[in-house]
Amino acid sequence: MTTSIYCLLALLISLTLVVIRVIFCVPFCRLQDVSPVLDKPLSVLILLGSGGHTGEMLNILSQLDHKFKYSFIVQSNDESSVLRLEKSQVKGTVYTVPRARNVGDGLLRSIQGTLKCWLGTMKVLVFDKKWKEGNIPSVLLVNGPGSCVPLAYSIVVLNILGLASARIIYMESLTRVNELSLSGKLLYLVADRFVVQWPELAQKYRRTEYHGILV
To answer: From its record, what is one biological process in GO terms (predicted)?
Structure first.
């Protein structure tokens, strides 16, 4: 009987610690913002999502300080994004992960693709040697492609486990005027900052920020 009580107490204490850790790490639950302590140049991880998403992201980066240390994640077979990055003035290490989904994929294929993308992302974030040599990000910057969802939640998991301490910045696509994209809805509660480019969205979603059209 005594052993059972001790086991129950240990379980309750463990669950309490997990809840406290989640509250500390997930922005929607956090009681107050905890800014990271930066004792070295800011390291930014960026997802290039192909097509218009890549174009918008490169336009944003052209307005930022190039003294930041950039790392990029591209999806498999996305040679276009790699070429556009090479032609830009922004430089950084490039990692490749499986594509989460293709246009026209059904529900089952989308789930399978998202799982493969998540596993590929975790492999890069946890096991890649170049990553461990100083590319662990202070900030994750994403703007809406499907692969940003498993990537962002990978960062959330690593933050909770204490293996990372990264802030997530989500910028909604310019094409979204009245309603968030599916990626935006899935990341709305876990993004530290959620930027939209139309006042209609800022009025509808209280956690968003509106600074005009940025791309």
So the answer is: dolichol-linked oligosaccharide biosynthetic process
